[in-house]
Every structure is written in structure tokens, then in C-alpha cells.
Amino acid sequence: MRSRHELAEGLLPKVLASNAQLDSLPLGGPHRVQTVNLHHLALAERSDDFWSAMLSADYVTADGWPVVQLFRSRGLDLERVTGSEWLSRAVGSNALAGHRVGLLGGSHDVGARFKRILGESLVFREHGNRDEWSATQIAEDATRMDVDVLLVAVTPPYGDLIAMKLVDAGYVGTVMSVGGGVDMLVGAQRAAPEWLKRFGLEWFARLSANPRRLWRRYFVECMPTFVRVIVPALVVRTPSAPASSYEGVR
């Protein structure tokens, strides 16, 4: 069982502490960005393979207030940075225009709706059964299609593990974890109201929308990690350092 100190110190050098830092990351470059929420920490506590996948990412972001609090307890002044909000900004600002984008995960319907938004920029899609995926084959297909930005819309632990394996298999490009961002962008999944986000209750909106799938994740898998890792972080904090004092985008 990994301690909160090991979790925090292992990830801290990789943190993109603001939306501005994430937005400034050169798209198409050979780097992998991993968003981190409480579920990721719960998996990383117990699984060596999953922890290796997180450590292999070039950058991580705090996607959720518990992870924000964990990093703040180690002295980093940061904001919540989510893959879904990055995707919304990237599409709205045409940041993906001129890139060859791939989508890994999501349903065929969501992929088709996303294609209508991105148009010719979306050149590669894989929506098959994730248990049958071959990282080597996907890496080869994405490379053959000249994909330079690959969006991974797959829940943990599968999305994080396949993202690591894609890089290990030789894919060279930007690998960006976006979670349910594509579903929200096309309207297949509703984002939490802003007032819930402000109070750190976005999880409650997700649980209310899908209780059968999420109750075990939140209350059986994640609650012990919240107690062991996050609660101490709420009461033990080192002096804050501004985000600019960390290396950030390299």
C-alpha cells in the first residue's frame, strides 16, 4: 500500500498546475498527459502496474478537488485542471485545427458526432472492445494515419494502462487523457452544474446520473483512500509555492 507521501512526491514533479500551463503544451509533441482524480489515487495505492503507468506520464494534472488538496499539502499552489475542460477549450479555440487527431474509446455514436465537430481533423477512431485492443496494433495504425494528437477517452485503469502501452509500442505524438470529455462535448453526457463544481460536488452529479455503476467506485474503492490520503492532507500543509516556481511544461 503506497503512502500519501509516495503518491504526492512521485507525481509532484510532473504537475501542470494551471489551465494556462496545459494550454501552452505544444500539441503534436511526444508527450503524454495524464489527468489524476481520487479514483486514480485509489488504484495507484494498490496496483504496481497502475502506479507505473502514472509515473510514466510526462505530465499530470489535478482533476478533482481531493487531488488539488493533496498537492497543496506538499506546497504547490495550483488549480483544478481537467481533460474535459481542456478539450472544450481546444475545440472552441480551434487549437486542434491543422492537427491529425485520433480518438481512442467512446461509442461509435459519440465518435460520429465528434467527427461532425472536428471534421477532417479527426482521422482515426477506435471504439472496439477494450479487452481486445492491441497497443502495438493501435500504435501502428495511428502512426500510419499520421495521428499527432491522440485523445484517450477511456476510464481508469484501462485508459491509463493502454496510454502507457501505446508509448511503449512506439507511438510518437501527444497522448491526452480526456475522460468523459468527448461525451460531454457532443452532448451524450451532461456536465455537472457550475455551482456543484464550485463546492467540489461534481462527483455527486455523476453518482446521481449513474448510481449503479459508480456507487462501488466512490464508497468502496475510493472512500478508504480519501480517509488515508486526502484527510491528512487537509490538516497538514507545507508553505505554498507558486505554480510558476515549478518546472511545468518542459
Keywords:
single chain, 250 residues, alpha/beta, 6-stranded parallel beta sheet, 6 strands, 12% strand, WecG_TagA_CpsF
What features would you describe in this structure?
By secondary structure, the chain is of the alpha/beta class. The protein has one domain. Helix content is 50%, strand content 12%. It has 13 helices and six strands. Strands 2-1-6-5-3-4 form a six-stranded parallel beta sheet, with helices on both faces. Strand 3 (101-105), helix 7 and strand 4 (122-126) form a beta-alpha-beta unit. Helix 5 (65-72) runs parallel beside helix 13, helix 8 (135-144) packs across helix 9 and helix 12 (202-209) packs antiparallel against helix 13. The longest helix has 25 residues, at 211-235. The protein is globular and about 50 Å long. This is Glycosyltransferase. Keywords: Glycosyltransferase, Transferase. It holds the Pfam family Glyco_tran_WecG. One of its GO terms (molecular function) is hexosyltransferase activity. InterPro entries: WecG_TagA_CpsF.
Q: What's the helical proportion of residues?
A: 40-55%
> What count of helical segments does DSSP give?
13
Mean pLDDT figure: 90
CA-atom Rg in angstroms = 17 Å
Number of strand segments: 6
State the end-to-end distance: 31 Å
Q: N-to-C SSE series?
A: HHEHHEHHEHEHEHEHHHH
Proportion in β-strands: 5-15%
Largest sheet strand order? 2-1-6-5-3-4
- Biggest sheet record: 6 strands, parallel
Q: Tell the overall outline.
A: globular
Instruction: Give the count of structural domains.
Output: 1
| SS content category | alpha/beta
Low-confidence runs: none
